[in-house]
Amino acid sequence: MKIGVIGAGSWGTALANVVAANGHETTLWAYEPELVAGMSATRINHLFLPGIELHRGLQYTGSLSEAVQGAELVLLVTPTQVMRGVLASLQTEIDSSAVLASASKGIELGTLCTVSQICSQVLGEAAEQRFVALSGPTFAKEVALGLPSLIVAGSTNQVAAHTVQAAFSNPVFRVYTSDDAIGVELGGAVKNVIAIAAGISDGLGFGHNTRAALITRGLAEMKRLGRAMGAQDATFAGLAGMGDLVLTCTGDLSRNRTVGVKLGQGQTLEAIMAEMRMVAEGVKSAESVNALAQRLEVEMPITQKVYEILYGNKPARQAVLELMSRDLKPEQA
Ligand SMILES: NC(=O)C1=CN([C@@H]2O[C@H](COP(=O)(O)OP(=O)(O)OC[C@H]3O[C@@H](n4cnc5c(N)ncnc54)[C@H](O)[C@@H]3O)[C@@H](O)[C@H]2O)C=CC1
Ligand SMILES: O=C(CO)COP(=O)(O)O
C-alpha cells in the first residue's frame, strides 16, 4: 500500500517507521528542511526521535504534494494548531478516495474543532466518511523501540478503520477498531489537559492519592464532554480514554505531565515553553477544551483550573483548594 505521513515529529516518525517496516511504500513529510536532509542521510530523526535507526524502506520529503501523491492512506500527525494550514496546502493534492487518518491529539483554538471537523471544513464534508482517528496509550519512543503497544482506529466507516488496522498492525503494535471516531479523538485531546493537572499535583509534592483522584475525576470530565458531543461512554473506558489518561498522567515520558510538574515546582509557563521544542498539546487544549465545555455547558472543573493556572495567573495551590472545597455531592461520572 502507498502511504503518506504528514509530520515528522516523534509520533509521525514512529508511525511512519511502523508502516514502512510492515512493508508499505511510505513517504514521510517533514516541516524542517534540515530534517529531510538529515533523515535521508542518516535514517535518524535527530530533532524529535534521536538515537533510533529508521527502516531502510522509509522515504523522506519536504514536499507535501510528493508525500501524498498516489497515496491510498494519508496519516496526519502535525500539532493540531497547525493542522488547518497544512491541510489547506494539501487540499487539491490528496486523492479523493484516500483514507484520511489522524494521530494528532487536540482541539483547535478559536474554532474549537477536532481534527475530523477541521478535515471536513477544509476538504469537504465527504472527508468525514474516510476519516480515522488513531489514538491510545502510545509514547512515540516506546513504539519506535518496538515495545508492545496497543491503539484504537476509530471511524464512522468500518472499511476505513479496517484499512488502518491492517496497515499498522504487527506482532508488537496491535490496532483495535472502533466506530466511535469522536470519542477516540476527544479521549486524546482531554487526557493531555488532565496530564498537566497530574503533573502539577506531583510538582506541588502531593501524593499518589491526589494523582489517582485526578485521573478518576478527569475521566469523568472526559466522559461528560463526550456525551455532549455524541461519543460512547465505553470508548473512555478503553485504550483511547482511560488507557491514554493513565499513561500520560503517570509516565515520565509525557511532555504534558512534565509541563505540569514544572508549573507545580514554580516555573512560569513562558520559561517552560521557551526551553521546549516538542509540542505539549494540552497547553493550548486547556483553553480550547475549557471553552468547549462552557459552550456545551459541561462541568469540567479540573480542566477549568488548569486553564486558570495557565492563563489566569492562578496559583496552583489555590486551584487545588478551590477544587477540594466544591460543593459536596454524590460521585457521578
Ligand atoms: N510524541 C508522542 O509520543 C505522541 C504524540 N501524539 C500527538 O502527535 C501530534 C504530533 O506530535 P509529535 O509528533 O509528538 O511532535 P513533536 O513534538 O515531536 O514535534 C513537533 C512537530 O511539530 C511540527 N511543526 C512545528 N511547527 C509546524 C508548522 N508550522 N507546520 C507544520 N508542522 C510544524 C514539527 O515539524 C514536528 O513535526 C500531537 O498532536 C501529539 O499530541 C500522539 C501520541 C503520541
Ligand atoms: O499522547 C501521548 C501518549 O499516548 C504522548 O503524550 P505527551 O504529548 O504528553 O508526551
TrEMBL record:
Pathway note? Membrane lipid metabolism; glycerophospholipid metabolism
Positions with a binding annotation for substrate: K105, R255, N256
Q: Which UniProt keywords apply?
A: Cytoplasm, Lipid biosynthesis, Lipid metabolism, NAD, NADP, Nucleotide-binding, Oxidoreductase, Phospholipid biosynthesis, Phospholipid metabolism
Any idea which GO molecular function terms this record carries? glycerol-3-phosphate dehydrogenase (NAD+) activity; glycerol-3-phosphate dehydrogenase (NADP+) activity; NAD binding
What are its E.C. numbers?
A: 1.1.1.94
Main location per the UniProt record: cytoplasm
Q: List the protein's name.
A: Glycerol-3-phosphate dehydrogenase [NAD(P)+]
State which gene encodes it: gpsA
